Predict the structure.
Amino acid sequence: MKSELIKQSINLFVEKGFSATSIQDIVDTIGVTKGSFYYHFKSKEALLMDIHSHYIDDLLRRQNTILDTEKSHKDKLMAVVELIIGDIEKQGAVGRVYFREIRHLKEENAAIIRGKRAAFRDNIETLLAEGIEANEFRKELQPKIITFAILGITNWSYQWFNPEGSLSVKELSAMYTDFILYGIHSSGASN
Amino acid sequence: MKSELIKQSINLFVEKGFSATSIQDIVDTIGVTKGSFYYHFKSKEALLMDIHSHYIDDLLRRQNTILDTEKSHKDKLMAVVELIIGDIEKQGAVGRVYFREIRHLKEENAAIIRGKRAAFRDNIETLLAEGIEANEFRKELQPKIITFAILGITNWSYQWFNPEGSLSVKELSAMYTDFILYGIHSSGASN
Amino acid sequence: MKSELIKQSINLFVEKGFSATSIQDIVDTIGVTKGSFYYHFKSKEALLMDIHSHYIDDLLRRQNTILDTEKSHKDKLMAVVELIIGDIEKQGAVGRVYFREIRHLKEENAAIIRGKRAAFRDNIETLLAEGIEANEFRKELQPKIITFAILGITNWSYQWFNPEGSLSVKELSAMYTDFILYGIHSSGASN
Amino acid sequence: MKSELIKQSINLFVEKGFSATSIQDIVDTIGVTKGSFYYHFKSKEALLMDIHSHYIDDLLRRQNTILDTEKSHKDKLMAVVELIIGDIEKQGAVGRVYFREIRHLKEENAAIIRGKRAAFRDNIETLLAEGIEANEFRKELQPKIITFAILGITNWSYQWFNPEGSLSVKELSAMYTDFILYGIHSSGASN
DNA sequence: GATGAATGAGTTTTCATTCAT
DNA sequence: TATGAATGAAAACTCATTCAT
């Protein structure tokens, strides 16, 4: 029931936004009462924090697995891009909430999430820096800025990409990987 | 006074979000009463629409100037990237509202804005398609998808880039242009 | 209208207690809406503070007048006792709220009221001390403790005394003055 | 466990008031669940009634012992004053609840408690009347009113007296007995 | 142009109580 | 005896909007 509340609230948050979604809206979708909601969550903000925590924790765990498993820096980067974009299929809605609603967490919680977001970003930045060192990526790149560019590409796709359309998640990942790589690869040649 | 209301509301919308900002919050910052607000705006949503309209109209106008003025497709693309990123300096706050709060427009108005957004996007898509045709860009690219990638890079920068930091708007534009070009340019070589 | 809200809320607070009285209860008695209440008061606690402030400020002002006007310490004390008890007639309800509900003020406000209560008490204590000095009252008394005893007598009367019964406010004051005096007067003889 | 619930609830009622204390607050202090509470008490009001009943029954029993044991009316009165004030030490918290929260009993129970309060008061009134008859106290006193004065003195002390301060319960009783006596005693002379 | 007062519908949250296990 | 989950009613408070002046 708690997980049902989370699931439905995510859909509503995507559709109407966090502030514009009322507890009443949420409980109505599964036919329980507001009291029930507050049995499971201390507050509306606590629910939002729950959503954010689970999402980024899961993402970080899988990112670490990739970094431990893949061999070349290029492969690592490709896998991370696929990780983010691949999620649109199963967790697109959560992702949209995650990218959009962090400002409705109270400062204390926002700081925790921002810390984890930074860790996720730092992992990419380090990956780029090491790839440059290893001559896999272009020397003149600034890892920090390129990291933001890559995240812009992947994260923005949550705003427009419909995985049920004619383009699959796999195909989009491939295109974006190609786009990113042949901008940062030390040789400028395409495949 | 109307423009003062717009200016202050933009700041508040950035800080707290549209839903979480009350008319009272807005009028308090300039020391007038709610009645005054309703003399100038029909509703809270009308104010939001006003902000959206001016922003996208201005952007479209400048984009068209670029498309009419610049020569090569490469130069056109570079200028459009600079247009978006350069705006962070003077209109960063409006941009953040524009990217974030469209879902609080009523459907009728949202449709208008979505139309103009699509026009802005289509212009880039067309530019890419023509660039491919003209052999300036790689043949195998899908203009529509690459457009989203480019917009991801530029629009996402509104979320993190601080133009008062050590990196200037000019420098960021240059880096991103380079990053984009040498991923889409038919020759893979960097400058 | 603001004063009407205060008046009715006092009656309800006496009857049901502060916590058990809802804003709805209050506004219902004068047929306005909750919104109106919150236009005039920032919160329920602010209303309670308003009641407390006015009551004690008025009391202190009148106590000071007495201390400045009356001649002997005995007369001053009698007048203060009459002040407190006499108020039951016109402000009995406010007094009952004042004595009972201070713990529902937020700490910040409670401290202010406690300060003024202490001032009122200190004035009596000083009066007693000076009366002892002047040989009007018994030497062995501890002014501080006797002050509490006197306040106990007068304040407790708000809990049981009905000024519309067979005993008038004047008569009660006289009885209590007599009771107090011939316990503290240096001669133990009654009149 | 039942007695533990009573003990902790008394502390909370003193601190926050009956209405402002939730069942959750109570059970949290001893680490059980609300269900447990309702195994032991039919309702929140039943708990309050339990507290009131035990307190006044105990007080009445001890008052009767005093009335049966002590010889002179003066001694009886002194012992009753000591009884009330002495309780601040061991049962100060219950007393504060008892004086303050009677209005949260349902009418049926409030009537029972009011009856017992009246009995306690009547015993003092009778004691005074007999003392007057026996020439121990002043003829012109109205026993009923003086009873309220005495109760005012003693009961009010629950609002300010800290038995852990520099003044002991014994000392306070002595002072108040002296204060009361040499106001009502037929001879006006102090000890 | 601007204000002050009011509204009504809605918001988040609390809480005494119940009950199957 | 005790718990965990749920309820329903009500609480305090907010807020976009209106309107007479």
About this structure: Residues 73-100 of chain C form the longest helix (28 residues). Residues 183-191 of chain C have pLDDT under 50 and may be disordered. Chains C and A do not touch (no CB pair under 8 Å). Residues 1, 32-36, 39-40 of chain C lie near DNA strand E (CB under 10 Å from a C1').
